[in-house]
């Protein structure tokens, strides 16, 4: 790994730490304001959105914790360090969101049976602040969301929250114009469905990564094709790819060489090819032509 790459990686982590801290503070302040307004003006839409925003704050805290854990060095017991904690946190965040969805749906059903008066103006103004807070948070996370599952999850949540706040503003306007207070409950149900849809992909991907599935960012067929084209490679087997964290991937592969004297050259080329496809840590074992792999778990 080059010095420049290490510097950029450390700079990115430091930058993300600062971004997450800022996002946590502004969102926590908004949760207090929104929940207070929800209780005062008896708005389920505001209370449910505040509850979801609180789960987002907790998710941001978990993500920040995972990032800091991933920076710790390896130990004799954890030889990979604590990088996998980022995957586990992504899975935990998805589960938290599913629980929040269930709570919102249960409360919405209760409110449908016993509707109460809601202040449309209070709902609109409070949710309008939410559009600004969630929009700023999503913008802060947007730059790094393409390269990390944790950041992408947080970005999607905040972007979705921005849209949800827009919906709450609309419900407040409808209540002011028509007095139809049930629209607040309907908006809450819509919030729950939107969260469910946005959470599903995060849940699936983080669950797969925790089971050492091939990360979605890696096209295994493309990788196989390029390895087969490396000069000096006769064939390969025992090829496994998994995620060490939400940003780093690893692989093992057995290469059958055409010429054993080219071992170091071929091994370097294979490692470079894997790195080009987003696999930063690889173990390449070379075998001579016609040899038989003695690894009991080797799948040719």
TrEMBL record:
Residues 21-207 form the Cation efflux protein transmembrane domain. Residues 215-287 form the Cation efflux protein cytoplasmic domain. It is a multi-pass membrane protein. SUPFAM superfamilies: Cation efflux protein cytoplasmic domain-like (SSF160240), Cation efflux protein transmembrane domain-like (SSF161111). InterPro entries: Cation_efflux, Cation_efflux_CTD, Cation_efflux_CTD_sf, Cation_efflux_TM, Cation_efflux_TMD_sf, CDF/SLC30A. The chain crosses the membrane at residues 20-44, 50-67, 87-110, 122-142, 154-180. It is found in: Membrane. Its main location: membrane. Pfam families: Cation_efflux (PF01545), ZT_dimer (PF16916). The keyword Repressor does not apply. Keywords: Ion transport, Membrane, Transmembrane, Transmembrane helix, Transport, Zinc, Zinc transport. Gene3D superfamilies: Cation efflux protein transmembrane domain (1.20.1510.10). It comes from the Bacteria. Belongs to the cation diffusion facilitator (CDF) transporter (TC 2.A.4) family. SLC30A subfamily. This is Cation transporter. It comes from Phocaeicola intestinalis.
């Amino acid at each position: 790994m080059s010095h420049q790459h290490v510097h950029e990686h450390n700079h990115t982590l430091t930058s993300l730490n600062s971004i997450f801290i800022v996002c946590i503070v502004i969102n926590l302040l908004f949760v207090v304001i929104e929940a207070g307004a929800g209780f005062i003006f008896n708005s389920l839409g505001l209370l449910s959105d505040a509850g979801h925003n609180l789960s987002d704050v907790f998710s941001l805290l978990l993500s920040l914790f995972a990032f800091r854990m991933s920076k710790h060095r390896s130990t004799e017991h954890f030889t990979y360090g604590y990088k996998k904690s980022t995957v586990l946190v992504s899975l935990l965040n998805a589960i938290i969101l599913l629980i929040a969805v269930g709570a919102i749906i249960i409360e919405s059903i209760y409110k449908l049976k016993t509707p109460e008066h809601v202040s449309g103006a209070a709902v609109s103004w409070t949710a309008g602040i939410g559009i600004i807070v969630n929009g700023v948070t999503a913008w802060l996370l947007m730059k790094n969301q393409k390269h990390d599952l944790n950041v992408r999850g947080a970005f999607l949540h905040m972007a979705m929250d921005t849209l949800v706040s827009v919906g709450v503003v609309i419900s407040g306007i409808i209540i002011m114009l028509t007095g139809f207070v049930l629209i607040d409950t309907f908006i809450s149900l819509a919030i729950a469905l939107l969260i469910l849809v946005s959470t599903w992909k995060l849940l699936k991907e983080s669950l797969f990564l925790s089971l050492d599935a091939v990360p979605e960012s890696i096209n295994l067929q493309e990788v196989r094709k390029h390895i087969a084209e490396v000069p000096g490679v006769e064939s390969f087997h025992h090829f496994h790819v998994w995620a060490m964290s939400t940003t780093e991937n690893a692989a093992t592969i057995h290469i059958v060489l055409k010429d054993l004297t080219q071992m170091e050259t071929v091994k370097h080329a294979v490692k470079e090819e894997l790195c080009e496809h987003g696999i930063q840590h690889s173990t390449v074992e070379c075998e001579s032509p016609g040899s038989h792999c003695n690894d009991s778990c080797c799948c040719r």
